[in-house]
Amino acid sequence: MKFINDYSLLEKKISKYKKSAKKIVLAHGTFDLLHIGHIKHLDFAKKFGQILIVTITADEFVKKGIGRPFFKENFRSEMLKSLKMVDDVFIINHASALPAIKAIKPDFYLKGEEYKDNSKDISKKINLEKKEVKRFGGKIIYSGAITFSSSNLLNNYFSDLPIELKKKLHTFKKKGTLDKIISHLGKIRNKKILLIGESILDEYRYVEPLGKTPKENLISNLLRNNEVFAGGVLAAGIHLSSFSNNIQILTSFKNNLLNKALNNFKTKLKIKNLKLNTLDTIQKIRYVEKDLNRKLFQIYQMQEKLITNSEENKILNYLKKNISKYDVVIINDFGHNFFTKKIIDFLESKSKFLAVNAQSNSANQGFNLITKYKKADYVCIDYPEAKLASQNKHDGAEKLYNNILSKKIKTEKFAITLGKDGSIIFDKKNYFRLPAFSNRVVDTMGAGDAFFVVTSLFASCGFTVDELTLIGNAIGNLKTNIRGHSKRIDLESFLTYINTILK
């Protein structure tokens, strides 16, 4: 099938139809599982012209969530090409139909009836497509033929999700959770956010195993290439940058590689880099088997020093001058001595809305417990961290929170991420547990951090514990399918994923 990357080439291919003076109709979509609704949709389109062109989104640009598209681009293209009303099919290397519209300049552009209302356009691209069609004298036609969606069929008949989870997702659909999320986006986008914590340089070194050395019990590896990512609080800020226009990061780092890694993303982040002498950049080097994408081992480069009184005062002075500006303060505490008791006490007493995550990991040897914080509006940790903070190895998340953690930390909402089992979030009266939406994992690095920072924003807008589990699980699933911090979780992908799983 014809894969289009050069749109001038598409224009040349369409010229043969233009010369015949025949009316051209363009239909665009994913067409992931062709069904009778699509057939009627395309039949309707063909009534308006002699030539029906269908463009489909290439696999790389389909943003319907984990495991989508279900059918690959060539298969989708072949199915469409076999239909008698379709004259030509092109796979386009873009997330929107806009470049194809500019190249083809159709007389009519076909959309489903649901796209008449611009407010329901999650991608925010449909309106641009409509304007482009009208710019050169084309017309928009709407077909009401599709009464059910490919996503709905795939969710109900091809999905391996448990029945209980499907029921819970259906409840979210009935109560209009997606509409609520969309209605709050303006409020979220305008919130002023202070994100505080340590910056980390995450490096992946990809190796190819050569075999055991002749004289020692060592496996020799050939270093192929490496990638460097901005991690820690910087990675959290990158994810949030798609949700909010007003993010200030307060951190400390002295490694120029972090600046280079940040330049890979077009963000609106403002970074206050304190460059504290005692807090040199933490560097995590992971050695990864290239072909299998399997992590072999990890090396830390860091110095463990307590910050000085003058450095503590430097942080406090910034906070005293600026804390009143921010609607939300988010603490990413990785346990490397950035947060002293004085700093914590100040943030707990002066923040309008305080969200806290304190990580217990191998680098801080498990000493960084959430219980060093006494109060917050929203807390998020993982299950092993909950067990460490509770000094209880065997109880489930419900018992740990109700019997121990709720008594140690005063908070409105408390989230515990459960890895492949999803998440559970408590408030003062209720809790809600939601399984993970997918077990397909590329890389788990940073999934919990992404879950935490995004749900913090929605928690600050009063979202309920059940709604927060849905939002958090969607974010976590999207992040586990990104290698390292090579891409951010963007708002469009998040909304499209929510929309897809609720159909």
Report the radius of gyration as a whole number of Å. 26 Å
Task: Report the strand count.
Answer: 19
- CATH C-level category of the largest domain: Alpha Beta
Q: Biggest sheet, strands in spatial order?
A: 11-10-7-14-15-16-17-18-19
Helicity range of the residues?
A: 25-40%
**Sheet bearing the most strands, described?**
9 strands, mixed
What's the total helix number? 18
CATH superfamily of the largest domain: Ribokinase
Shape: globular
What would the CATH topology of the largest domain be? UDP-N-acetylmuramoyl-L-alanine:D-glutamate ligase
Based on secondary structure, the structural category is alpha/beta
Average predicted local confidence, pLDDT: 88
Distance between the termini: 30 Å
How many domains is the backbone divided into? Answer: 2
User: At CATH's second level, what is the architecture of the largest domain?
Assistant: 3-Layer(aba) Sandwich
Strand-residue proportion: 15-25%
- Runs in which pLDDT lies below 50 for 5 or more consecutive residues are none
Structure overview:
The chain is α/β, with parallel strands linked by helices and 503 residues long. It has helices spanning 7-19, 36-46, 73-81, 98-104, 126-135, 150-158, 163-174, 177-183, 185-190, 233-240, 256-262, 309-322, 341-350, 383-390, 397-408, 447-459, 465-479, 491-501, and strands at residues 2-4, 24-29, 51-57, 88-92, 108-112, 139-143, 193-197, 199-212, 219-232, 247-251, 270-273, 282-289, 294-301, 328-333, 354-358, 375-382, 410-417, 423-426, 431-434. It has 18 helices and 19 strands. It has two domains: 2-157, Rossmann fold (3-Layer(aba) Sandwich); 182-501, Ribokinase (UDP-N-acetylmuramoyl-L-alanine:D-glutamate ligase, 3-Layer(aba) Sandwich). The chain starts with a strand and ends with a helix. The strands form three sheets. It has a nine-stranded mixed β-sheet with strand order 11-10-7-14-15-16-17-18-19, with helices on both faces. Strands 1-4-3-2-5-6 form a six-stranded parallel β-sheet, sandwiched between helices. A four-stranded mixed β-sheet has the order 9-8-12-13. The model has no long low-confidence stretch (mean pLDDT 88).
